[in-house]
Design goal:
By secondary structure, the protein is mainly alpha-helical. Helices cover about 50% and strands about 10% of the residues. The protein has 14 helices and 13 strands. It has helices at about 10-15, 20-30, 35-50, 60-80, 100-115, 145, 150-160, 165-180, 210-220, 225-240, 275-280, 285-300, 325-335, 340-355; strands at about 60, 125-130, 140, 190, 195-200, 200, 255, 260-265, 265, 305-310, 315, 355-360, 360. It has a three-stranded antiparallel β-sheet. The relative contact order is 0.07.
Length: about 375
Amino acid sequence: MSICANRGNINVNDVMGDYLLTLVDTLDTLAVFGDMKGFQRAVKNTIKFLPSFDIDSHVQVFEVTIRMLGGLLSAHIIATDEKNTLGMRLDLNGTYNGELLHLARDLGYRLLPAFEASPNAVPYPRTNLKNGYFSGETSNTCAAGIGTLLLEFGTLSRLTNETIFEDIARSAFNDVWAARSKKNLFGNDFDLKQQRWVGTTTGVGAGVDSLFEYMLKSYVYFGDEQYLGMFESSYAALLQYSRDTVGGYAFFNIDMRSAEIASSWVDSLSAFIPGMMVLAGDVDGAESAYMLYYHIWRRFRAIPERFNLFLREPDLLFYPLRPEFIESTYFLFRATGDPFYLDVGEMVLEDINQLQRTACGYASRHSVSTLELEERME
């Protein structure tokens, strides 16, 4: 029996999905690394072993969008790039005929029931790729899950000339924007049936994180001034209410309405924030914010899922190979040219290879306090 047949295991189902996730995840990586043979082989295997998404799999709309839909679209763009920027164009020699885009379109339509079943523009957080939405689905979602669809759905619309995908993603985004507090902040738990926040904690961590990222990147990618205006308002609110005003090193979890501190921990997902700050042009602020995560990594050779700033100890010990700290390291090196960030990158690579590499892949750390690994790779 497939591990994903266990519908009660939400974490496994959300990530793995029974649809060759790791293979698709590697497509654009192989291209960026300049591995033409590897890229061509991976594209061929994806087409061969993933003929469609007619799969009885219960997936999270957010997760499948950013990883599966995004992976297929990125690889298609690279394989058909007229400028051949990465030297990976495949459509001229007859080895590629747009199959990845066809797969992406198939997946996009299979995600639509999550939107169509909703009483408003906010999609249900999960759906079944074969059977669509079912009536027992939870109506609780998060700001990131609602707003982190724009890049992929917008790209799919522009590549297929079918506006439905970008239209529904934009509508969902507009709904979460309309639900912001007077301080221009968002909660982390939204009930789409009640159309209200049932969790009002906000910050730059889980449940909210990528919403800010997608506002800015949607402006950069699509050139839409609306997204830039939204980002500037939200980013100013983060700096005013969430960031440590003494050193600028930490962004605290606060209440979206009162701005009172809600908890004393930071999570590993929030390590994306220095990279986003670089993209926004705030390099000095990014360098300050980066140092918190750097010192946590130095101590544990990983970043625990939650680290308590008051106790200076982890609240949640596991590390599932999250890439956010690495991405911020890359952004800061590109922005500053400082070899310090190259050294950090080498340190991270060595730590992961030494502590989490196995015979068949890389495993999640069960605890940053021990060398114990889990039987899974997300």
